Amino acid sequence: PGSHTPHFNKVLHLLDMMSLRSTTIVCAAVLAMATKSTAVFTELQPQGCCRNAGGTSNTLPGGYIFTTTIAACQAACANRADCGAIEFKSRNSFCELHPAADANQTNPDTNCQCFSFGIAPVTEMPTMAPTPPPSASPTMSPTNAPTVMPSSAPTSPTESPTMAPTMAFTYAEVTPRGCCDDANGANDVTLNGTDLSACEGACNNSATCLGYEWQSWRDVCVLKQNALDLQSTNGYALCLCFAKEVLPPPTTASPTPAPATNSPTVALTTEAPTPPS
Q1: Is 94 in a helix, a strand, or coil?
Q2: Contact assessment for residue 86 and residue 41, using Cβ atoms and an 8 Å cutoff
Q3: Alpha-carbon separation of residue 224 from 9, 61, 167, 169, 211 (angstroms)
Q4: Cα–Cα distances in Å, from 194 out to 109, 121, 147, 236, 254?
Q5: Given CA atoms 41, 47, 49, 50 in this order, what sign does their dihedral have?
Q6: What is the C-alpha end-to-end distance of the chain, expressed in Å?
Q7: Fewest CB atoms less than 10 Å from the CB: which of 5, 63, 190, 213?
Q8: Highest mean pLDDT pick, 5-14, 49-58, 123-132, 251-260
Q9: How far apart are CA 225 and CA 223, in angstroms?
Q10: 200 CB contacts (<8 Å, ≥6 apart)?
Q11: What confidence tens digit (pLDDT) does each residue in 156-191 have?
């Protein structure tokens, strides 16, 4: 009261300004939230292949991806500006990239899925509370027990028997992409309902198979017995032609011999304390 009133009012005014400044800082932090975007794929129903309003579809140029997954197919679409939908065939892991117009409807098929592609914003809230510092770990007390007596004789390592090497193969795609030219296809072996990996496995297990042809649109595998069939293709983009190559056997390094021990390690003894007199 009295002469202290003006000073007291200045203190109250200063406290109000500090509170207003703190509120402004908090509001600025909320307004500065980081905004990102993420790719969103929505499956069309009923399940089936992608179709536009006219009931047809148009695969994008270079939009065929063989033996892949839905996630890899979606990633490939997200990296293209002209991609607005994907079509994935589960029976042969086959992916097609389509324009957005093809995500209008589906042609019902339980082995086919159509996903529309879009971009959705994602807002991340800033972390307001600081992370508390970790508590200091206590120092463990040393152990007073004596050291266990080591073995007097060195232990010899057990040598594993050497297994016979398994023959491995690799396959080189014949270019340009297409079906193998049939110079002499009389001895070919045709397997129906076979995906790409099963077709390659069948060629691995055949001693007479020199390569294979896989027709993706109908899951047909043709095991080639003549090397002349594997020199060129007909250029059909939905067909693959591979030539079989034998990999050299891996080299096995000799094991390092165990070091010789000249004398056994002597165990340490703990002397009993002298009793008081």
Answers
A1: strand
A2: yes
A3: 98, 30, 19, 15, 5
A4: 19, 42, 64, 19, 42
A5: negative
A6: 83
A7: 5
A8: 49-58
A9: 7
A10: 171, 212, 242
A11: 666 666 665 678 999 999 999 999 987 776 789 999
Beta bridge partners of 114: 87
Helix, strand, coil percent content, the chain, rounded in steps of 5: 20, 25, 55
Nearest to 231 by CA among 195, 190, 182: 182
Q: Residue 99: what residue type?
A: P
Predicted confidence band of residue 121 (pLDDT cuts 50, 70, 90) = confident
Please give the angle made by the CA atoms of 76, 108 and 94, to the nearest 5 degrees: 30
What share of the chain has pLDDT > 70, as a percent? Answer: 62
CA–CA separation, 114 and 57 (whole Å)? 11
pLDDT per residue over 232-255, tens digit each? 999 998 999 999 998 888 776 666
- 133 — pLDDT class (breaks 50, 70, 90): confident
Contacts of 147 (CB under 8 A, 6+ apart): 267, 268
Burial 181-215 (b: 16+ CB within 10 A, else e): beeebeebeebeebbbeebbebbeeeeebbbbbbb
Q: pLDDT tens, 191-219? A: 999 999 999 999 999 999 999 999 999 99
